[in-house]
């Protein structure tokens, strides 16, 4: 009698892994002879032995932190020390060095924006709003 590959695969699956059934017990359940089931199992093992091992999943790597997440963690860590800071770092999966880098970057960004504001330089957003308001006022004068 001929059996489909899908049926054979299903029978092999029932004979391996957790909750596996012996070929003799499966033969009684499905009405296929035990030697036939055993042969399918041997063939499946030979095919599996010829297959290359599956690629091991590499760790995803460090988390990609958004600026908002970094700022949230910095705000939570502000004023913490010792065990409280250690608990926060463990909960977030961070090292103290990473947080120090973030703090330095935030301080640098804040001091840079303060310098720009005190020098009178406009940010890109401020320049766009100024240009839009000038165009609108010119358009109103032309009418």
Q: Notable features of this structure?
A:
7 helices; mainly alpha; 143 residues
Written overview of the protein:
The chain is mainly α and 143 residues long. Helices cover 71% and strands 0% of the residues. The chain is built from 7 helices and no strands. It has helices at residues 5-15, 23-30, 34-50, 67-77, 82-92, 96-119, 124-142. The longest helix is centred in the C-terminal third of the chain and has 24 residues, at 96-119. It is elongated and about 90 Å long. The mean pLDDT is 82.
What's the short story on this structure?
The chain has 143 residues and is mainly alpha-helical. It is 71% helix and 0% strand. The radius of gyration is 34 Å and the shape is elongated.
Spell out the blueprint of helices and strands:
Elements: H1 5-15, H2 23-30, H3 34-50, H4 67-77, H5 82-92, H6 96-119, H7 124-142
Helix pairs in contact: 1-3, 2-3, 4-6
Beta fraction: under 5%
Main sheet record:
none
Mean of pLDDT: 82
Number of helices: 7
Structural class: mainly alpha
Distance between the termini: 92 Å
Radius of gyration: 34 Å
What gross morphology would you assign? elongated
Secondary structure tally: strands? 0
Order of helices and strands: HHHHHHH
Characterize the quaternary organization of these chains: single chain
Percentage of helical residues?
Answer: over 70%
Give the uncertain stretches in residue-range form.
none
